[in-house]
Amino acid sequence: AQSVAQPEDQVNVAEGNPLTVKCTYSVSGNPYLFWYVQYPNRGLQFLLKYITGDNLVKGSYGFEAEFNKSQTSFHLKKPSALVSDSALYFCAVRVPYSSASKIIFGSGTRLSIRP
Amino acid sequence: NAGVTQTPKFRILKIGQSMTLQCTQDMNHNYMYWYRQDPGMGLKLIYYSVGAGITDKGEVPNGYNVSRSTTEDFPLRLELAAPSQTSVYFCASIPGQGSYEQYFGPGTRLTVT
């Protein structure tokens, strides 16, 4: 069965430091992977995706993610954190062969950036 | 474009009451989805639709119904509300097959007491 895991409920980082939010996946076939961000009382916003090609994908707000097939991971990264990056982050994987482009979400990681 | 809009923003229901959560998108997207978000659980897919007149169940469809009479609207119906349906509900859409980035509405926070 397809699944995605975010092992950390919360990540705390000082402003200006690099940040990493971890995600691992389990899926049959080639994975289509996504990161979404949710600000308080808002819907989710798409950050970036990996479909194929370069293992390092760049997205919105200076975020990037590294696809690692051997470790089945898709960690979200940013070189220098901002207080405004504080939010809830979700990793997601597309259900293979889904004609409706269904995706499965991880449980979320709350990122807190302290000034 | 307003994108994906949802009404109401908040609602409190008594056990056994019914209600409809509204979802409308003005992007001419074919595919639409309903999710519920419970604390620490991520999002679970309730129902989805790949076009007007076509709907199908997701992971957690029990206690809900949907219809899709137009491309724009995808309402979610709760017939007999139960405390287990207390959650935040999100509607999302994508243009269609081959598209992957989902566009989300702002959500409806529902409490059943």
What does this structure look like?
The complex is a heterodimer of chains A (115) and B (113). Chain A is mostly beta strands and 115 residues long. Chain A has strands at residues 3-5, 10-14, 19-21, 24-26, 33-38, 44-50, 56-58, 64-68, 73-78, 87-94, 103-105, 109-114. In chain A, strands 2, 5, 6, 10, 11 and 12 form a six-stranded mixed sheet that branches. A four-stranded antiparallel sheet of chain A has the order 3-9-8-7, with no helix packed on it. The model of chain A has no long low-confidence stretch (mean pLDDT 93). By secondary structure, chain B is mainly β. Chain B has strands at residues 4-7, 10-13, 19-25, 31-37, 43-51, 54-57, 64-66, 76-78, 87-94, 103-104, 108-112. The radius of gyration of chain B is 13 Å and the shape is globular. Chains A and B meet through strand 6 of A and strand 4, strand 5, strand 9 and strand 10 of B.
Give a short summary of the structure.
The complex is a heterodimer of chains A (115) and B (113). With 115 residues, chain A is mainly β.
Counting DSSP H or I runs of 4 or more residues, the number of helices of chain A is: 0
**Total number of beta strands of chain B:** 11
Spell the H/E element sequence of chain A.
EEEEEEEEEEEE
The Cα radius of gyration of chain B reads 13 Å
How many β strands of chain A by DSSP?
A: 12
Shape of chain B: globular
